[in-house]
Structures are given as structure tokens and as C-alpha cells.
From TrEMBL:
Pfam families, sorted: Glyco_hydro_26 (PF02156)
Region (Disordered): 354-378
Protein name, UniProt field: GH26 domain-containing protein
GO terms classed as biological process: substituted mannan metabolic process
Length: 672
């Protein structure tokens, strides 16, 4: 939990928000005009044209924007370089949509003497790669505009490609990813920031990196062959004319594939999983196919090749865990080199990231009667009596008690302590917030990242076993995107590797595994240096639940419009929920509440904030929203979120309006 005292020294301005409003440097040079290449001619949507581009000669100064690279795991190896000219939808290729122009022999120079650029809003370059991380290189220049980068369909990151003077170089580094196939899409937003003279976005190349030291991915896979025919899950159905080719060339794993030369013929594969790769035939007779997921935007695939081979035709982005449909449509079209319009389907390989632990045993209703797990922190002593008193006040039992271990020693953190022993026999579940190491002991993220503390965390896993709390939600190293804890992510790589070591160590002894929770603080991220909290995401293999701590402060939400704007912005609750669902993770809110203790930077006794949060939760009930625990507090120097405790020398905040709204919304007499 973060106190107001914890926030001191964070550099927030008089306008609030932890240094959100930083002073901008004055621009000390005028922007030189530049001659732009002609746009793609009408009717040439999606084509790229080769023409020289005017060299950029003037010298300028760098603006105040700092774009720091994302996380890189220790010593990843570059396994593929994808140049702007490696066009296609297969592995280690880039596909373009909208108007892009190839600039050969232009300035600034690039390794292959070529880059591609676009000036049009919505133009995109999609990079298909395998590995654990991606670096995108482009051109920053006086005409540079804003671009968005999204990996595997996750919420996008905005980058600014304006620079004085122009230079080719790194423009984006992805977070560390699970080791597998991915897509990254660079999209021209059609916007810029003054004094940029245009909205040019350039793509030079991408580097796919693989960290071979990563442990195996907790992932399952299955294959749906062309012969597994039906309309059920993990089957394929055919409409139109499709012919079976048994024992044909090229050979396939099951010695069979289907093909069609008729326009409108469709192969439909239904599957349950988080990603699908469609394999087909590339051949001299190959035509064009349209491939789509869940009836969304289609990818056009040209299956022509000079020689026949079985090859991946399409790799989907990461999907929410569930049932999906991929369709392969024969367009009845071909390129000039092909002698037919054949489209072949061999098989679909489905990846399924292991879903998180079932929140409740099958058939067991929540104690609270809410459609999600609901609880509180048990202010002031973190005891069952305090938790139950709050729950009785609100009018419904609590499913969860949120406890915090002491942070002064390894024994307090990993051995049975008051956090577990106080709640012996309590029928609900625990949310346990644990630091990665004891504070003020010369321990560090850098040391943790080497695995030096793994033995302690194996002890913690054993503690969960001996206290019967294996079903707990473990909030490990929470709010590391702030700058008030000793585990704050000043070095993003150290934080990621530390989290990974701890999660692996706990899972090695706890049986069954607890739910590993990665939680950020809402709104602005002081850290990592990129100010993007996704740069410290430990990765799908190590995280079961993604969470946020969301208070009505820095800034408050006086209106629904303000609430929604903040929720959808980077660091907002909706933004992070969408990221969690795109990665097949459940979502939780470990701390939330009104903020009467935050002065003008908080919303005070804002009953509407209680309503906004409730409506937000209700809209996502049954859609991956796992839990929420209200943070109730009323001591001086803290949030002032108290709903039920009476005034006293140790309790100086009350929020009667918020309390009335909360009890009305959470009351469930049948659950008492």
C-alpha cells in the first residue's frame, strides 16, 4: 500500500499527478521545410512505389521527448532481421496496408540502403516474427509523425518519429514476450507534434531476438488436420468444391491435404486456444486466399511459389483464451506468374496458454454473492475480526482478505507470519502482497535478478502448503511502476528477471500453484524510464493475473467522462484490462477507493467514483474479471478512504456519502 508520505519527493508539480506535468524545453530552431514525395496515385491502395526522396540537409536540435527502449532479457540473440523489402505474410516478413513508398538510396542511409515510408493515416506495416522480443528500426526526421505499435493485438504504444536532424535508428523495443510466434503492427496515426512539418512514418527493418535462457513456455498445442471434418470444436468444415489429395506432392505430416480452385470455396476451422497457425501449400498453381479470425479483418495471402512446399500461410495474433473461428476463402484470383487459382489447406496448429487457476471450485458460489471475488484489507490490524466487521457493515460476506506481510526480514516475508497465522481457519481466501526482498537490508532487484534469493522463495511456497493457503493470490512486487518502493523498476530488466525467478521458485514448491499477480499503480508511471508499465511486464509464462491499484486521485474523476478518459489512457483500468484479456489473463483490482486524504489531488467523499467503479466491474463480470478488494484506511498521512470506522484519534477521515453508495451496491443479505 502507498501512503501519502511514500509519495513525497516524487517530483509532482503544483498541478499534481506525480510529476505528470513536466516543463517542456523550448524549441531553439525553426523547422526547415522539406519536399515531400508524391503520394500513391489514386486506385493504388496498398501498393508501394520506388522513387528517390529528397535528402535532409539541415541540422536541428532534439526535442524534449525521451523515448526509452523497453525491457530486454539478459543477452538475447538476434535470430532474424526483417528488412522493409522482405514483403509477405510468412515468418520473418513484413506486410503493408495502405500507401507506402520504398525509398532506395535515400538519406539517411540504412544497412540495406532502403526504407519504406507512409504519410497516410491508417497505413500499417505488420511484422511477422518468432522469438522473445522485437526491435523496430525506422527514420526520425523533421517531417516525422506519430505512430502506434501493437504487439499481438495488445493495447498500442505511441511513438514520436520527429527528430532534428534526421537519423535512422531504433524507434521501438517490445517488452519481453513468450518464446513463440508473434506479430507487431506499426500504424501511421496521421498526426504529429509541433514543430513537425508532416506525418511521415518510416520502417527500415526489424530485429527478432530470442532469449535461449528462458524456461519452457507453459503452453499446450494441438493439430487439426484437413481430415478432421465436422462443425464442432477442433474440426474443419468445407463449403464449395474442395478435393482431397492423398499421397500428393508436396508430402504433409498426415500424407493428405485439401485444395480448391473455385472462387468462394471456404474452409472453416473452429478451435479453442490463444493462437492459430494455418498451414497450406505454396506452389506454381497457387492462387490468392483471404484468411480471417472471428469474422474480423482479413489478411490476403498469395500462395504462389516457383516450387511446391508445405508452409505456414497465416499466424494469428494472440487471442483471448476461448473458442474461435479461422476461415480460409479462395478469392479465385492469382498473380501473373501463377497458372491457376489453387488454394490448399493442410492443417491448423493451435496454441493454448495454460489458463489461470479456476477462481473457485466448480459449483461453489462466492461467499459475497458478487459475480467476482470481493473483499477488503481489514483495516486497522489485518485480522479476521477487522475483515468480518467491514463485511458485516457493507451487508455481504467477504470472499477475500487482503493482507500485507512485514517487510523487515526474510523470516517475516517467507515463513509463516501474522499474514497467514492470523487467518488460520478463516473460510475465505487471501490476497497476499509480498515484496521481492526485505527493505533496508542492502537487498536489491539486481541481486534478485540473478536468482540469489530463490531459496527463500521456495520456502515461501512451502509456507503456502503448510498453512493451507495455496489458493491465495500473490501480489508480488506490486506498484513497481511508481517510485516509492525499494523495488521500484528503475532498471526494468532487473525487475522482470527478479519477478521471473521468484514466480518460478514459488511454483517449484507450492502445490497446487497459487495465482501469481502482477499489479501496477493506475495512471502515470514514474518508472521504468520509458514511463510505459508494459515494459516491466514479466511475461505470460510467469503471470496468472494482471492487476491495478486504482484510487480517485492524481487525477480524481469528478465526472463519468473524466473517469472513462483516464480508464482508457495508458495506465488506466480499461487499458490494462484489455491487455490482460489479449494475453489470456484474468484481471484484478487489489486496491481501490475514494481519496479524502489526497487534498486537491483527490476526489474527496466522491460517491460517484464508487458508482463508476461498480458499473465498470459489472460490465466485465464473467469476462475475466477475477477480484477486487477495497482498501479501507483512515489514519493521518494516508489515503483517507475509510467507509466504516468511526472517528478517533487514529481515524481522521470518514466518507459518509461514499459509504452509503458502497453499502447499497454491495449489500447482499442472502450472503450473510
Amino acid at each position: 500500500m502507498r501512503t501519502l508520505a511514500d509519495q513525497e519527493g516524487t517530483g509532482r508539480s503544483a498541478h499534481g499527478s506525480f510529476g505528470w506535468h513536466r516543463a517542456r524545453r523550448r524549441l531553439r530552431a525553426a523547422l526547415a521545410r522539406r519536399t515531400h514525395p508524391p503520394l500513391a496515385r489514386p486506385g493504388s491502395r496498398g501498393r508501394r512505389h520506388v522513387l528517390p526522396r529528397v535528402a535532409l540537409m539541415a541540422t536541428f536540435l532534439l526535442p524534449a521527448l525521451v523515448i526509452a527502449p523497453g525491457v530486454a532479457h539478459a543477452a538475447p540473440v538476434v535470430t532474424a532481421t526483417i528488412e522493409d523489402t522482405s514483403v509477405g505474410t510468412g515468418p520473418n516478413q513484413v506486410s503493408y496496408a495502405g500507401n507506402w513508398t520504398v525509398c532506395g538510396g535515400c538519406s539517411p542511409a540504412t544497412p540495406n540502403n532502403s526504407f519504406s515510408y507512409s504519410t497516410n493515416a491508417g497505413a500499417s506495416a505488420t511484422i511477422h516474427f518468432s522469438g522473445t522480443q522485437l526491435k523496430i528500426y525506422g527514420v526520425r526526421e523533421p517531417a516525422g509523425g506519430l505512430a502506434a505499435v501493437s504487439v499481438d493485438g495488445a493495447p498500442s504504444i505511441t511513438i514520436n518519429t520527429y527528430l532534428l536532424p534526421a537519423a535512422a535508428g531504433l524507434i521501438y523495443t517490445s517488452p519481453v514476450l513468450t518464446n513463440g510466434t508473434h506479430t507487431a503492427t506499426l500504424t501511421n496515426l496521421g498526426q504529429n507534434t509541433p514543430p513537425a512539418s508532416a506525418t511521415v512514418v518510416s520502417f527500415d527493418r526489424a530485429e527478432a531476438l530470442t532469449d535461449t535462457t528462458l524456461p519452457p513456455i507453459d503452453q499446450l498445442s494441438k493439430t487439426i488436420e484437413d481430415t478432421t471434418i465436422g462443425t464442432g470444436v477442433d474440426q474443419v468444415s468445407y463449403t464449395g468444391t474442395w478435393l482431397a489429395c492423398g499421397g500428393c506432392v508436396p508430402p504433409t505430416p498426415n500424407n493428405s491435404f485439401r485444395y480448391s480452385s473455385a472462387a468462394g470455396a471456404v474452409a472453416t476451422v473452429r478451435f479453442t486456444g490463444t493462437q492459430v497457425t494455418v498451414y497450406g501449400i505454396r506452389e506454381p498453381h497457387g492462387g490468392r486466399a483471404s484468411i480471417s479470425i472471428d469474422f474480423g479483418n482479413a489478411t490476403i495471402v498469395d500462395t504462389y511459389a516457383a516450387t511446391s512446399s508445405v508452409a505456414p500461410l497465416f499466424v494469428s495474433p494472440a487471442l483471448i483464451h476461448g473458442t474461435h473461428i479461422v476461415q480460409i476463402l479462395n478469392l479465385g484470383q492469382r498473380n501473373a506468374a501463377s497458372d491457376s487459382t489453387a488454394v490448399g489447406f493442410d492443417r491448423a496448429v493451435v496454441a493454448t496458454t495454460t489458463p489461470p487457476v479456476n477462481p473457485l471450485p466448480p459449483g461453489s458460489p462466492n461467499r459475497s454473492g458478487q459475480p467476482w471475488l470481493s473483499g477488503v484489507n481489514g483495516d486497522p490490524r489485518i485480522t479476521p475480526a477487522d475483515v468480518d466487521a467491514f463485511c458485516a457493515y457493507r451487508g455481504s460476506l467477504c470472499d477475500l482478505a487482503h493482507v500485507y506481510v512485514a517487510r523487515d526480514s526474510w523470516a517475516s516475508i517467507v515463513q509463516p507470519s501474522f499474514a497467514e497465522t492470523n487467518f488460520a481457519g478463516w473460510p475465505g481466501r487471501l490476497v497476499i502482497s509480498v515484496p521481492p526482498f526485505p527493505e533496508n537490508t542492502e537487498s536489491s532487484l539486481a541481486t534478485c535478478a540473478t536468482g540469489a534469493y530463490d531459496s527463500y522463495w521456495r520456502t515461501f511456497g512451502t509456507t503456502l502448503n503448510t498453512t493451507g493457503r495455496q489458493n491465495s493470490i500473490i501480489r508480488l512486487a506490486w506498484q513497481a511502476n511508481g517510485n516509492w518502493f525499494q523495488w521500484s523498476a528503475i532498471n526494468a530488466t532487473d525487475y522482470v528477471n527478479c519477478y521471473r525467478h521468484i514466480a518460478t521458485a514459488i511454483r517449484s514448491t507450492a502445490n497446487p500453484d497459487p495465482i501469481m499477480d502482477w499489479t501496477i499503480n493506475a495512471h502515470y508511471s514514474q518508472l521504468p524510464p520509458s514511463h510505459n508499465p508494459l515494459d516491466i511486464y514479466p511475461g505470460d509464462a510467469y503471470v496468472d493475473n494482471i492487476g491495478i491499484d486504482a484510487y480517485d486521485q492524481y487525477p480524481p474523476s469528478p465526472t463519468l467522462s473524466a473517469f472513462n478518459t483516464q480508464a482508457n489512457a495508458i495506465g488506466g483500468i480499461t487499458w490494462l484490462y484489455n491487455f490482460a484479456r489479449a494475453h489470456g489473463k484474468t484481471f484484478g483490482i487489489g486496491e481501490w477507493g475514494v481519496a479524502s486524504g489526497s487534498g486537491n489531488n483527490g476526489g474527496g467523499d466522491n460517491a460517484d467514483y464508487i458508482q463508476f467503479m461498480r458499473d465498470w466491474m459489472t460490465a466485465r463480470a464473467g469476462q475475466g474479471f477475477l477480484y477486487e478488494t477495497y482498501f479501507n484506511n483512515c489514519d493521518a498521512g494516508n489515503l483517507g478512504s475509510n467507509l466504516n470506522r468511526p472517528y478517533s484519534t487514529g481515524c481522521i477521515y470518514r466518507n459518509p456519502n461514499s459509504a452509503a453508495r458502497y453499502t447499497t451496491l454491495w449489500r447482499n443479505p442472502a450472503a450473510l
